[in-house]
Design brief:
The chain is α/β, with parallel strands linked by helices. It has 19 helices and 39 strands. Among the domains are: 141 residues, no CATH class; 315 residues, Toxin ADP-ribosyltransferase, Chain A, domain 1 (Alpha-Beta Complex). The two termini are 21 Å apart.
């Protein structure tokens, strides 16, 4: 019956204790302490006598370990209701035995919580065979627990509940927090109690009263789970009511589905917005917020102190990114002092380039561009870029900059690993980054002003294009009003069952591909191989299925407002794409119809209600292609790990993707007769992030400029490379279907993308038992 999981034990029944093993594998192992968990199956199958005999045998065995174990925690609900049994186990084993008085609650952060009926300590301890007494609430135990008052804490006009990290406080009249609430699973700290401010947001005075009742050995930390609790006005009122300089975590730390702890700002309906750089701030009288702890450095940067990052690339010449409450200050000067002008904002963060009076030279500019390029889409979308320093506007300064040796230009870096997709926020306001002195060769054509990428200082001279041959007017395809809005979510068990039954023999064939892919790429299992197989099979059939499941049928059905021919295929396809890695390099599509000059107008919006595929290989072309479409993706998923070996490596954009036109580029040099090469014209697009507000402005913002630089470099490389022709009809059809034009109102209704590994709130439901 007992089975070891690391240093812990699970008392199992006949069924495999999969959930219990997974939980205990992440439960911290503490010297001298052993945790024993009764599996659900064993609790149902065995009577109290059998369970007690198993506990007795385990306790005796642990008591013979010659001091290696001094206390044993028995995860059997209600065991301490029989104090005589707990005392007998302690007496026979010679160990301290702890048992719960009531039900157990399990947190996604690998902790076990027990609470009495009136909120008092739920783990009872029997030492040396004495009768058990209330000891604490949590395993692993916290140093601050012994200083906590017994019973239910109260605060005026608020509801207070004990949880893993400390206590949760909500506005009055709301029910206590349970294990199904996100607040229950906020990650705590061994040394300081957390006061988690949850929705509905209570008054600051209520939280201040609670601060006064908690032990003072280590200052409690107020965690802003409710968005209003991170607002400057609320924090100022908290400081005024509590006095001193309270510590505040402006965003909660949560355990994601992949097991990693993330600090993340949540928006409406607890949607993830972005990962903040400041993780704890001290709120000063007068409104200043001093950063106490900061997040790990972004890609391409290293820690340079408790709240500062330094570029890893050479040639940075003393540049530092100082973490302030409002975000980051990029400068060579010391960090600015806390002020009311730099306070935490739950709607976004600010990248401040230079300090007032500081010269913003090309090195600072390139550091800012590289920093933004290395961020996850959610962080980048939430950024407000502000240049506080003095730009290189003086002619003598420009001349001096040209005379001095410039550091080697830094290319826009690719992420070292694929980041987890999460929803993004509004477009980046504020001025664009100052230009860098390292020109990027470009060729431009098409109507309207041409905006150079971030990495260009001066525009390449415009070369007049020859007048194109007269062509028939290009008809615009628009998204039909009947199009289905596909919800981005995981599939349900019922949907997977219906899909497997409806797809029949195709499903069996696809499973062979899925099994081979999982053997090569275990990460595709996503922690639940059974669920993953049906979802990934749906992706296989979308790319290589027969009548009813292939891409053309599915996407045409979505455009007509239907879910498709095969029952359950659409939700499984959506869920399967979420399991695939994100692709963040430029991708290629092509057009076989005539292209009009208006199609290259910056700010033009396109959208696809269905799914959209593109080639991750940039050395391909289809017969009769009139123009290239290069896209900088934000949410596309790579399929090579799943269905490698096809004519092209494809990336698939989720249903409802939207795109902003950045411009059109025309090849200047003529091709020799019969020469196989990429088309002369290329349309450059940037995929909008799921929660990004669309804009039809011709002026490009900082994200547009960063994307444009990467697209132009990819286009230049494509035009230097020999191309190969793709002729498989299904692939050609997927890569050349025209993306419809959308209006500003239609583009505003973008899909909500939650991302499998990044969806912390979704992971809570599985963790709560």
């Amino acid at each position: 019956m007992p089975e070891a999981v690391g240093r812990h034990l699970v008392l199992r029944g006949e069924q495999e204790p999969v959930r219990e093993r997974a939980f205990l594998a992440r439960l911290p192992e503490l010297p001298g302490r052993r945790f024993v968990l009764l599996a659900r199956d064993a609790a149902r199958r065995f009577g109290p006598r059998t369970v007690y005999d198993a506990l007795r045998a385990v306790a005796r065995d642990e008591g013979r370990t010659a001091g290696a174990v001094t206390e044993i925690w028995l995860g059997v609900e209600g065991l301490a209701v029989r104090p005589d049994l707990v005392a007998a186990l302690a007496r026979e084993s010679g160990l301290d035995v702890l048992a719960p008085i009531g039900r157990l609650a399990f947190a996604s952060g690998s902790a076990v919580f027990a609470c009495g009926d009136v909120g008092d300590r739920g783990w009872w301890r029997s030492a040396a065979g004495a009768g058990p007494e209330p000891d604490r609430w949590r395993f692993p135990p916290r140093a601050w627990e012994h200083g906590m008052p017994d019973g239910v804490l109260t605060a005026p006009e608020a509801t207070v509940s004990p949880v893993m990290a400390g206590v949760v406080v909500r506005g009055g009249g709301t029910p206590p927090v349970g294990s199904g609430d996100l607040a229950f699973h906020v990650v705590g700290d061994e040394h300081a109690v957390r006061i988690i401010v949850d929705e509905p947001c209570p008054a600051p005075e209520s939280v201040a009263a609670l601060l006064a009742d908690l032990p003072g050995d280590r200052a409690p930390v107020v965690v802003a789970l409710a968005r209003g609790a991170a607002e400057p006005r609320w924090l100022d009122a908290l400081q005024a009511a509590a006095g001193g300089s309270p510590l505040v975590a402006p965003a909660p730390s949560l355990v994601a589905a992949d097991g990693e702890v993330r600090t993340v700002v949540l928006g409406a309906a607890q949607r993830e917005l972005f990962d903040p750089f400041p993780t704890t701030v001290r709120v000063r009288a007068g409104g200043g917020q001093e950063v106490v702890t900061a997040a790990a450095p972004p890609p391409g940067w290293a820690s340079a102190g408790p709240a500062a990052y330094a570029p890893e690339a050479p040639g940075a010449n003393g540049v530092r990114a100082h973490v302030v409450a409002s975000g980051l200050v990029l400068t060579r000067w010391p960090a600015p002092p806390p002020s009311r002008e730099r306070r935490f904002d739950p709607t976004g963060w600010t990248l401040e380039i230079g300090r007032p009076g500081e010269l913003v030279d090309p090195v600072l500019t390139r550091a800012a561009t590289g920093l933004l390029d290395g961020l996850t889409p959610a962080r980048r979308a939430a950024a407000h870029v502000r240049t506080s320093g003095r730009p290189l506007a003086d002619p003598e300064e420009n001349a001096e900059a040209r005379r001095s040796p410039a550091p080697e230009p830094l290319p826009v870096s690719e992420p070292v690993s694929e980041p987890v997709p999460v929803p993004e926020t509004a477009a980046v306001p504020g001025p664009a980054l100052p230009p860098s002195p390292s020109p990027v060769p470009t060729s431009t054509s098409g109507p309207g002003p041409v905006t150079e990428p971030v990495a260009a200082a001066t525009a390449a001279p415009d070369v007049p294009e020859p007048d194109p041959e007269p062509a028939a007017p290009v008809s615009e395809e628009r998204v039909p009003d009947t199009a289905l809005q596909v919800v981005d979510r995981d599939s349900t068990a019922a949907e997977r069952t219906r899909f497997a039954a409806a797809s029949g023999e195709q499903f069996t064939e696809a499973l062979a591909t899925v099994n081979a892919a999982m053997a090569t790429w275990p990460a595709l299992r996503g922690g639940d191989e059974g669920r993953a197989k049906a979802d990934l099979a749906a992706v296989c059939l979308y790319l290589d299925g027969r009548e009813g499941t292939r891409a053309s049928v599915v996407d045409d059905a979505v455009r007509r407002g239907r879910e498709g021919v095969v029952d359950g295929h659409l939700p499984c396809l959506v869920s399967g794409l979420r399991r695939l890695p994100v692709h963040r390099r430029p991708v290629l599509r092509q057009g076989v119809e005539e292209v009009g000059p208006e199609q290259g107008a910056p700010g033009r919006l396109l959208g696809e209600p269905g799914f959209l595929t593109a080639s991750a290989d940039l050395d391909v072309t289809v017969a009769d292609a009139r123009y290239d479409v290069l896209i900088m993706p934000a949410t596309a998923r790579r399929t090579a790990e799943l269905v490698g070996g096809g004519p092209v490596a494809e990336a698939v954009f989720p249903a409802g993707s939207r795109y902003r036109t950045l411009g059109m580029r025309t090849r200047e040099d003529a091709l020799a007769d019969g020469e196989l090469a990429a088309p002369r014209i290329a349309l450059l697009l940037r995929e909008l992030s799921p929660d990004e507000d669309p804009s039809t402005a011709e002026e490009l913002d900082v994200r547009d400029r960063v994307a444009l630089g990467r697209l132009e470099r990819a286009l230049a490389g494509r035009r230097r490379t020999a191309v190969r022709v793709v002729s498989e009809p299904a692939v050609v059809a997927r890569l050349t279907r025209r993306i419809p034009l959308v209006g500003l109102d239609d583009a505003a209704a973008g899909p909500r993308a939650t991302g499998r590994n990044g969806s912390t709130a979704a992971a809570v439901a599985d963790a709560a038992r």
